[in-house]
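Students often ask why we bother predicting the structure of a whole assembly rather than each chain alone. The short answer is interfaces. A chain on its own may look different once its partners are present, and contacts between molecules only exist in the joint model. In this exercise we take four input lines together and write out one structure for the complete complex. Read the inputs first and try to guess which parts will touch.
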Amino acid sequence: MKKHVIVIGGGPAGMEAAGQLIKNGYDVSLFEKDKTTGGHLNEWFKLFPDRRAGSEVLDYYKNLISGKDLKIINSTVVEKVGQSGGSLTVSTKEGIEHTADAVVIATGFDLFKSTRKEEYGYEIYDNVISSADLEAMFRKGAVITSEGKTPKNVGFVHCVGSRDEKVGNLYCSKLCCITAVKQAIEIKEHVPGTKVYCFYMDMRMGGAYYEELYREAQEEWGVNFIRGKVSEVSESINNRLIVKVEDTLAGRPLKMELDMLVLMAGMEMSEAGKKLASLTGLKTGDNRFFSPADHHYGSNRSNISGIFYAGACTMPMNITETISHARAAVADVIDYLKDSKR
Amino acid sequence: MQFDPFIIPFNIGLYFILIYAVVRSVMWFRDLSKQDKLRLQRGFFGRSFGQSLKEIFMESLLHRKIFKTNFRLGYMHMSLAFGWFLLILFGTLEADIFGSSHLNAPYKAIFFKYFNPDHGRAGFEAVWSFVMDFLLAVILSGLIIAIIKRLYSRIVGMKKTTKLRPLDKVALTSLWMIFPSRLIAESFTSGAYGTGSFLTGSLGSWLASFLPAHEMAYPFWWLYSLSLGTFFVLLPLTRYMHIPTELFLIFARNSGITTGDKAGAFTDIQTYSCSSCGICIDACQLNFSTGITNIQSAYLLKGIRNNENVKDIAFNCLMCGRCDQKCPVGIELTPIRMLRRRAGETEHVEKSILKRYFPDKPSFNPVKVSEKPSFDFLPSSRPVKADVVYFAGCMTHLTPSIRNSMIKILDASGVKYKFIDENGGVCCGRPLMLAGQDKEARELINFNSKLILKSGAQTLVTSCPICYKVFRESYYLDIEVLHHTQFIKNLIDEGSLKLNFMRKKVVYHTPCDLGRGSGVYDEPRDVLRYVSRLQKTDFDNENSLCCGGSLGNMKISYKQKQIIAADAAARLTKDNPEILATSCPLCKKTLAAATETKVADIAEIVAEAIMLPNLMKEKSNPMLIVKEPVTI
Amino acid sequence: MDKFGFAISQQRQIDFEANRRDIAEYISEKEPSFRVCIECGCCAATCTTGNFTPFSLRELLILLKRGENDKVRDNINKCMLCGKCTLVCPRGVNTRNVISLAREAFQDRIKNAV
Amino acid sequence: MKIEGKRAIWSEYQKEIADDKYYYVRSCIRQNFFPGSEVAFLKIMREELKKDVHEHPCHTTCSGIGYHGDVVPVETAMTVVARQFALMTEAGYTNYVPSCITSFGLYTEVLETWHHFPDVEQKVRQQLKKATGREFEVPKNLAHASDIIFKFRKEIAAKAKYKLINKNTGEPLKVVDHIGCHYAKMFPSKGVGGAEYPYVLAGMVEEWGGEVIDYPERRHCCGFGFRQYLVQANRGFSVACSKEKFESMQPFKPDMIITNCPGCPMFLDRWQYVINEMEGKRYGKDGEGIPVFTYEEVAGLILGYDPWDLGLQMHQTDCEPVLEKMGIDYNPDMKYEINGTITKVNSRVSLSI
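Now the answer. The structure tokens for the assembled complex follow.
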């Protein structure tokens, strides 16, 4: 009889893990809390650093699982994974239990709620938006202010909810810098005359072709980068946003008026993941993400045997890393199911 | 008396251009400085007169130098210039020998056939006609090449920097019309009378076979005269002004007049002497390495003549001096460009016709940002005493191995020296001069001069050709200035530096400012020959390449510099030497980044070759060294 | 002004809106490499002038971009144009041309003012 | 601007405020700058709201001004604070209500410190015992006096004779609310509405008919800043702070400023005069100043108290424009009445500040 693996979460990590497990001949069920699979990828218009359409990666997943016998259970929240005998029991919020030989947790991340950085006035000032809101604008094909006008000056605040003790996140979300660079270029593509300013603490361009994209943004698109984190945002009498920042490299405070301010929200452990962790007894780190058994050679294993992690539920990851991580999780699952004597 | 109204346009043109040439020459002469006037007078009536005549014959007529670089181009220029010259000469003789009288007015020679249609039927006359036809054929062949060249450059899409103005078009058309109209006019006349040699005779009898030759000839004689007249009148407005100007230039240059660092009549003469032959474009690395084809000297001079704003052209140049070497007219292109840089932005003014015949002296007012001194923050220098002072230069500080090698060499040779910019010195001033900022450069020159003079040194050694050039040309130092290659050469000759022979295959890249810029070609090669197996390259001495790193070019991007460097390095290392040697820190840094071959300064090679006994007394050993006080 | 024994302090803040940034735009258009500066400070570290006086090309370029032109105009002439900065710049900024263009722009503005 | 966004944040910063039996401590400087305000507070609490408010004659400075002025060390400050608590304990009260924002900030800081470092509290207890023989309980509830008025803003509105509404146009008065820095910037959770969008004064203004202005420099300090104004050479910086605020609020054409701190009304009021003297600039409509009030004065005005009883004649920037707009019935001739005689005072006398 085929062994049964349950994958929790239908984002890129979960889809990848499920697809690869099916390929390897397992009976796989995928639980997704939303109505459809795809996770955050559904919301992203284009991906960095090559600005390919996010839908291309979604198409890849469609192909990966099409025609395969993958059971996808949508709109279902998994709350707990219990151990009974040699197998695992996955309980949904509705209290239905499913048995599995192994479980892959791919609950991903939640975008930092920008309202928590009160000083930026997200959901208070009309033209303070989040990076996700901007992606929605790109998808619609219209970058406009709340007054329906074309923005002439747009700012990006890096590290919103990352590297910030005040919101309890000491870690770097790793992807916001490159996302800001990508979005800055896209703004220039959508509204060519716009001036774009990125307020950064550090430009963390660690991935392949990230630095090149950063340079392209400067050289070809004329995006301005100002080192300093925005301290406060307010609204002028003309409904323009006034940002205050220190230009740390000029050593002077700087005041600027903008038509639109984009907050580069960081990544946090998902709420669903947090609940799953506490009810299941899975270890989490100081950063609240799932804590893998070993950061170097056990990044897919949990503290409970038979439960594995895939993707951004363990740390902020880009799509490439997520896919690699999910495949590595599958390797661990195969290894585990081969060794178990059942 | 042989006369016909059609000769009037020719006569007007001829006498106009002759008078104009005289007037313009007088004006140029008047604008020369006192010394230059004296030089020219001595030169004109002195020994250099013969030299000038020879040069006029060799260059202005035969175009020997163009022949050397480009045979086809040389033939084109020679056929037009020398061919026309001979045609006039033989025509005059023809009129003199076979005409009705002797010492004829010029038009009788030019229109000889019209007035003597029966001439040339047989015997000596026929031979003479053959010669005349032959010369005409030569000129026409040159003309065909010129037309093909012009059309071809359009076909391959070479951009012209300026559009032809209406008068230029008229002048060019009239020039192109001269010889074809003469051919047809002579042919019709020959056809009507059954005379003419292989060209005009054959063409004439063929034309006469179906056209009324006698009636057709007359309008073409008019056309011939009109073309000549128009061309002569418009000549001062076009680049063909180079024909008379070049004669003046040759006399002036042979009298010892140079461009120097001030604009004046001589610069003006040189500007008008350019024939836009394009050899400078072929020589330019910006052209053949990076495909930049609108900034070369021909365009600069053209822009100056047309009173355009040439600032961007002036600053987009490596200042390597390759074009100076190749210019067949011998125009001092790089010094003229330097003068232009100092002038900064100039506004384009469309001049009136009169002003174009008699242009104002070009103004070269230097750019001033402020009246305040720029470098008053420099500390007052403290004197150090030494026989020899070593000035590494800014660039050498970025290539510490050259600096260390020099210290090793100086220590090994036992010379009593002081390293005056050991802790970072003040720039020599040449980069500012290259940027056209002479006044500011002068402040730095004064600062460094004081420092050097206070040392009481007899010899100044520098590792940087950029510094070397400016030390020699613009510092008023009454001491020996040596580039380190010259200094090392002296040490070897004196026997104070004992070197091992290294069996390495080396090629040498001559830095622009050391070679073409300062004329130092032999010493570096001698040193290299002494320590290694020096190989030849296609780019030795005057033909050396620029490394691409030049401080002279303010405009090209880093990528373009890299391309030039890679191209130069590839050409130099074609025969796979073990070391690509040079004698400039900037060349070394630029070339090293552009090739897999090891790049080394001569100082580094020499330092490595120092024999052990010399090293025993090495004082740079940190254990033995006695710290000297900071010198600056 | 110091009626009460003190004067009202002046703003230190860069007022981006109020500043004229046309000089930076002029330079950026003529020398696009001006835009790719990442303010690493390599130029200032190697600077021949910086060896003698507090002169930082990095700082001046930032001030230009922010439209704080006065300090740039007062200091830009201290550059000796020796080119060391151009050689060490990791981003290939044509620093010498940037400086020359800045001087030129100030020159033009002075001319226009007269 | 989306007000729902602000309301969402306000709802997150709720604070417990006791509803009776207050131990009220006065502010050192308010008693001098705006003596009518504290009197008005007591009157409103006792007479209008019928609350038990106790004042202790032995209350001294909390030493916050010295602490923030870098002349009193923290342990000394804590011991002085402990003594105030001892007086409260002895009087049988547990709800501590300081009139001063800096006191409120200091008390909050001290209580937080003791909460996290109990050994420090023990040490302070010993020191107090040794020095004065007193013992104390920490307050059960610590609320600033403006929190109390905020709590009863609806009750006050119910009794109001006037509203913050321009009688002539029927439009709400535009009010700038300025919160003292020490109210919530140090401990956002201890202030009504938090530090970014404080609601304590905005709530009163809304309830009493006015309209709150959100202007860019609302977060900026008034310029009091202890170190700044205490040293004459630094006062230019102090004025510059106020000036920055005025420049920023001016385009919104505010009718008045409401404050809850001792220093803020003082400096926002007096520096308007100084700026006018030094630079000839005024920020209100028609070349007038922008009147500055304490929240007690505003509460007193809407309850119909006589402006001169509230001490509005002590303001350097004239308050009359606001009185006129609100349609308050007052006698301008009585402005400088002292003990029944009217004294002419030239309000433009150049003071040595």
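Check your guess against this: Chain B has three domains: 24-237, 258-357, 388-616.
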